[in-house]
Amino acid sequence: MTREAREELCARAHDLARALRTQDNRATADPVYLVQRKVTDFGYALQWIERAAWFWPDGEVMPREDWDKVEKAYQHNRETVTLDMGGGEKETFRLDELERTGYVERWETVQTFLTKAAAEKYIAANGHFHGEMRVWVDSAHRNPEMQFIRELFLALLDPDVVL
Q1: Which domain holds residue 22?
Q2: What confidence score (pLDDT) does residue 64 get?
Q3: Which residues does residue 64 pair with via DSSP β-bridges, in sequence order?
Q4: Pair (68, 93) in one structural domain
Q5: What's the CA gap between 124 and 119, in Å, rounded?
């Protein structure tokens, strides 16, 4: 490693250590910040799930904005529903040609960060790949490796510690 690369590495490590020491830990011991995306899982039996999603005859999921209208037609025992297809075009569908299934939404972790700022930076740079996202704080409690990494960076700020 060149001297310049080592100095850059040390500067970045000290910056991270300062960020760890000064950030709001959201009242969490050994916090880690999770970037999560919202995921929708389909195929649940509607006897157990209250939310219904609708699929086109070819198996593709309908746009979310149409689900409520189709569900309302279904609940009122209608045989057809007319949907706006865009550009002023409307099309009528038979409900028995569409598929109704239950769904749940959940948050799936995409990346883990030591600082909230880094997690937010990731979303700003990569959020367009993932849809709806959030930063969630979790704890590295009972995770000795993550705790060690945090302690190692924080030790950089102690003038009595030489690494």
Answers
A1: 1-26+142-163
A2: 95
A3: none
A4: yes
A5: 9
pLDDT tens track for 70-110:
999 999 999 999 999 999 999 999 999 999 999 999 999 99
CB neighbours of residue 4 within 10 Å: 8
Fill in the amino acid letter for 71.
Answer: E
User: In this structure, is residue 117 part of a structural domain?
Assistant: no
DSSP 8-state symbol, 63: P
136 within domain boundaries: no
**In 32-104, alpha helices (H):** 64-75
Q: Are residues 45 and 99 in the same domain?
A: yes
Q: 46: domain CATH number?
A: 3.30.720
* 40-to-107, 139, 163 alpha-carbon distances in Å: 9, 25, 46
Ranges under pLDDT 70 in the chain: 163
Query: Burial level of 57, CB count in 10 A (0-12/13-18/19+)?
Result: exposed
Q: What is d(CA 107, CA 7) in angstroms, rounded to the nearest whole number?
A: 39
